[in-house]
Structure formats: structure tokens, C-alpha cells
Specification:
The protein is mostly beta strands and about 200 residues long. The chain contains 1 helix and 10 strands. The longest helix is centred in the first third of the chain and has 24 residues.
């Protein structure tokens, strides 16, 4: 739980630094630069067995000719109860991070299409509902393609609503549950601040 909190604090700090930098660049003429930067805060919702996983995260990076290239981190903010192969009550936690690529289509319109993909490494584990101790840790490579409708609220602020699918390629297999239960479609909402 502490790792997600620490990462969220770092993302908020990066978000604030980006906002400060954008304020300084806002005096420049649009034709004076070909690049920009962005920072996104997002919430994702996935069905896992009988529960809903709520994942909070974000990404920050550069914009080069409309391409968004950066790094991301996503972590579950709630504990989802799952059915394992043992009799103990437990819940699942996971997080992953890596590189982010995105591209908006028809970017000159207020409403436009945004496609992106995240590729990273992560880990999952079970948490005993009684002792609160983590066990049965597993590693995976995450590949998350998505498509969204994005709306430009202002020149530097956008909001998007989209769908995505999370693929897990296991590198360390868990013993008490199937990692394939994490391969699910989901929906997300994101707020992006940037110099577009």
C-alpha cells in the first residue's frame, strides 16, 4: 500500500512541476516550438471475478509532432477479493509501470480520438484478509492498448474517456490463483495537462 502512496505523491509533484513549466512557456508564440510536454492523472476500472478493481496512476512525458512519449505507473487502490486454491480469505493487489506511447487523431478538433499503449513490468500478490500480510507474489509484463474520446477543455487541459484491455505475460507464476483472471477489458477516465 505504501508503494502506491509514494508513487502517487511523486506523480503529483511532477504534475505541479509541469504546471509551473507550462506557465513559463505560455508566453511563447505557437510557431516558436515543435515540442511540448504532458502529464496525465487517470483512474481505471476493471472487473475481476465478482469485484471491481480501481486503479489509479498517471503518465508524464514529451510531445513530439503530436506523438506522446513518456513513462507511466498504475497501481490498484482497492483490494479485490478473489477465489484462490486455499481456504484462507485473501484479496489481490497489483501495480505496474513502464513506457507510454500515445497519438491523437483529428487533434485540431475539440473532440478527437486518442489511441495509446502502455508496456511495462509489474507484480501482483495476495494479501491475507486477517493478518494483512502479502504472499504468493508474481511478476508479469503488462501490455495495455486503449482508445478514447478526448475533449480539449482549454489549450493546455484535456479530459478523456476510453476503453482498454490489459494483457499479462507472466514472468513468475502465482501458485494460488490464475494470473489470467487479470487479462480483462476496462474503462478509464483521464485528465491531461500539457503544452500541446
Amino acid at each position: 500500500y505504501n508503494a502506491v502512496n509514494i508513487m502517487m505523491k511523486k506523480l503529483i509533484a511532477i504534475f505541479c512541476l509541469l504546471l509551473t513549466g507550462l506557465a513559463g512557456f505560455s508566453q511563447a508564440q505557437p510557431d516558436e516550438y515543435q515540442q511540448g510536454g504532458f502529464c496525465t492523472l487517470n483512474g481505471q476500472f476493471y472487473p475481476i471475478e465478482k469485484g471491481i478493481s480501481i486503479t489509479i496512476g498517471g503518465s508524464c512525458g514529451f510531445i513530439v509532432k503530436d506523438f506522446r512519449i513518456g513513462a507511466y505507473f498504475d497501481g490498484m487502490s482497492n483490494a479485490v477479493k478473489i477465489t484462490g486454491t486455499d481456504s484462507e480469505p485473501h484479496s489481490l493487489r497489483q501495480s505496474h509501470g513502464g513506457i507510454y506511447f500515445g497519438y491523437p487523431f483529428f487533434n485540431d478538433h475539440s473532440f478527437h480520438l486518442l489511441t495509446d499503449i502502455k508496456v511495462g513490468y509489474g507484480s501482483s500478490m495476495l494479501v491475507n484478509s486477517v493478518s494483512r500480510k502479502g504472499f504468493d507474489k508474481a511478476g508479469f509484463v503488462a501490455i495495455v492498448p486503449s482508445a478514447a474520446v478526448e475533449y480539449s477543455i482549454t489549450d493546455i487541459l484535456k479530459i478523456s474517456l476510453g476503453i482498454e484491455y490489459m494483457f499479462h505475460i507472466k514472468t513468475k507464476t502465482p501458485e494460488l490463483y490464475k494470473q489470467s483472471i487479470l487479462n480483462k477489458p476496462g474503462v478509464y477516465v483521464a485528465l491531461t495537462l500539457g503544452l500541446f
